């Protein structure tokens, strides 16, 4: 891990622009849909299946299916009804869906460095889910496009799962602040812009300990053909 990951500009690996599947920001943003309930991870998983296989899974239907299961059968995939899906549960759920849908996908939980995450974004046939967290009153700024307003909940200690979709070392908000990390996020319906974070905000929130995920949790979904 770099000594100071908050200043990735010193690392040549961050250039040039990295975009998931080589798509434009507008194309990536079209995968965004507003979550209903505590379903950010389910939205990310369904989006990953759509991007990698073309299969469309409704995150609302998936949530209802999981919530209808008895506790012990649901536990590998979700803690409780309308509850969170920890990174290790994300892996189990992706593997289950891949079997049920005969989708050529595999999943594993990793803990890459920021530089390694940028490399993953560039690789074809890979979608990476990252889980970030923060304490009440110290949420990161997660803004849409070139906006400056943060959509993150600052009133509670929270965790949130997003798809790492882009790294643009030149991306700035409307006030000139660098925000190079771009994400497919479940806080808006489609649109033509991703959500963006600064290096310090992303590294700090990604390094926040996630239960059953650890530090810098990243669930890597890859095609197997």
Give a verbal description of the structure.
It is a single chain. The chain is built from seven helices and eight strands; from the N terminus they run βαααααβαβββββαβ. With 225 residues, the protein is of the alpha+beta class. α2 crosses α3. 28% of the residues lie in helices and 19% in strands. It has one domain (25-223): Phytochelatin synthase, N-terminal domain (Cathepsin B, Chain A, Alpha-Beta Complex), CATH 3.90.70. Strands 1, 2, 3, 4, 5, 6, 7 and 8 form an eight-stranded antiparallel beta sheet that branches. It is globular and about 50 Å long. The protein has helices spanning 25-29, 40-53, 59-67, 71-74, 87-100, 114-122, 199-206; strands at residues 18-19, 105-110, 126-134, 143-144, 158-167, 181-184, 195-197, 218-223. The longest helix is centred in the N-terminal third of the chain and has 14 residues, at 40-53. The model is unreliable at 1-6 (pLDDT under 50).
Entry summary:
By secondary structure, the protein is an alpha+beta fold.
Salient structural properties:
eight-stranded antiparallel sheet; disordered N terminus; Cathepsin B, Chain A; 19% strand; alpha+beta; 8 strands; 225 residues
Count of domains: 1
Going by CATH, the homologous superfamily would be Phytochelatin synthase, N-terminal domain
**Mean pLDDT across all amino acids:** 94
Secondary-structure element pattern, one letter each? EHHHHHEHEEEEEHE
The CATH architecture can be named as: Alpha-Beta Complex
- Tell me which oligomeric state these chains represent: single chain
**CATH C-level label:** Alpha Beta
Percent of residues in beta strands: 15-25%
CATH fold field value: Cathepsin B, Chain A
User: Strand count, sense and closure of the main sheet?
Assistant: 8 strands, antiparallel
Shape summary? globular
Parts with pLDDT < 50 across at least 5 consecutive residues: 1-6
| Tally of helical runs | 7
Tell me roughly what share of residues is in helical segments: 25-40%
Radius of gyration, CA atoms, in whole angstroms? 16 Å
Query: How far is the first residue's CA from the last residue's CA?
Result: 31 Å
Give the total of beta strands. 8
Query: Helix/strand/pairing class, anyone?
Result: alpha+beta
């Amino acid at each position: 891990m770099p000594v100071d990951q908050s200043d990735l500009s010193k690392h040549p690996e961050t250039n040039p622009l990295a975009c998931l599947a080589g798509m434009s920001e507008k194309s990536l943003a079209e995968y965004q849909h507003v979550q209903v309930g505590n379903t950010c991870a389910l939205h990310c998983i369904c989006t990953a299946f759509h991007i990698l296989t073309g299969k469309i899974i409704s995150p609302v239907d998936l949530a209802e299916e999981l919530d209808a299961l008895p506790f012990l059968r649901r536990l590998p995939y979700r803690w409780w009804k309308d509850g969170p899906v920890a990174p290790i549960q994300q892996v189990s759920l992706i593997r289950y869906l891949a079997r049920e849908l005969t989708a050529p996908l595999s999943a594993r939980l990793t803990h890459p460095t920021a530089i390694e995450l940028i490399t993953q974004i560039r690789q074809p046939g890979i979608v990476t889910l990252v889980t970030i967290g923060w304490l009440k009153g110290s949420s990161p700024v997660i803004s849409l496009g070139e906006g400056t307003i943060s959509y993150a909940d600052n009133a509670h200690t929270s965790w949130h799962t997003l798809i790492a979709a882009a790294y643009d070392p030149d991306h700035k908000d409307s006030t000139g602040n660098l925000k190079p990390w771009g994400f497919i996020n479940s806080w808006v319906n489609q649109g033509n812009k991703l959500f963006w974070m600064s290096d310090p905000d992303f590294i700090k929130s990604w390094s926040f300990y996630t239960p059953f995920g650890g530090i810098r949790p990243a669930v890597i979904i890859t095609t197997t053909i």
